Automatic annotation (TrEMBL):
It comes from Sodalis praecaptivus. Its main location: membrane. Keywords: Membrane, Transmembrane, Transmembrane helix, Transport. GO terms for cellular component: plasma membrane. PANTHER family: AQUAPORIN OR AQUAGLYCEROPORIN RELATED (PTHR43829), AQUAPORIN-9 (PTHR43829:SF9). Gene3D superfamilies: Glycerol uptake facilitator protein. This is Putative propanediol diffusion facilitator.
Amino acid sequence: MSKSYESTTGLCLAEFMGTGLFIFFGTSVLSAAKVAGASFGLWEICVVWGLGIAFAVYLTAGLSGAHLNPAVTISLWMFARFDRRKVVPYIAAQMAGAFCGAALTYLIYHNMFAEYEHAHQMIRGSQDSLYLASIFSTYPAASISLWLAGLVEIIISSILLGLIMALTDDGNGVPKGPLAPLLIGMLVAVIGAATAPLTGFAMNPARDFGPKFFAFLNGWGSVAMTGGRDIPYFLIPLIAPVIGGTLGAAIYRYGIGRHLPAAKTENGVNQTTA
């Protein structure tokens, strides 16, 4: 077995664990709010998501760079010289980690899911059951068109990646160092608080599709993929964050990063991201 294979396996394991960790925290806090009666408001839920991401970055940054998001991996490949041979393995690990993080949440909360469905006469796989499917993945508000949902995801993913590039670039102002993961987590929480009522702030194809696929396999069926729309909604959180992420990374790299007086690292920015 080659050292290159062993190295890539270790990196992917870190991506798997980090992604699974923050998905577990995020879907668990939603489960607590929706089926266990916990009194969490929007901001509290967004903070848990953000801190979950921060902890996942702290866990994995030293090994894999803590991408934890296919949009980040693709953006770093395009604009920060990330090894293209690792792009597909990283994304596969992130998707698998997100799936398993959702599965772990369901494992510990499944009795409460069943009790809630029985109490509300909810049939899993029906339109009404999207209320619980949304614990695992994101869906737009009923009043939001699919085009607007896609635009929202492009905008917030662009903001996310642009600011991640800034927060992990020590040449841009005061070095952030160990604070960078916490700042990235707070960034996610702020974006979530501002836009969660619109689309659920996916910003991450793995965060959305992995848990969505878990819901699809566990009784929610096609409604988990379509969100009750005429076309498969799952395509929007898969594609829009990649478009927005690469746009945000490009704006930072060519609009700000290249004009900074401080010398850059060989890759333009540090690759500790989320």
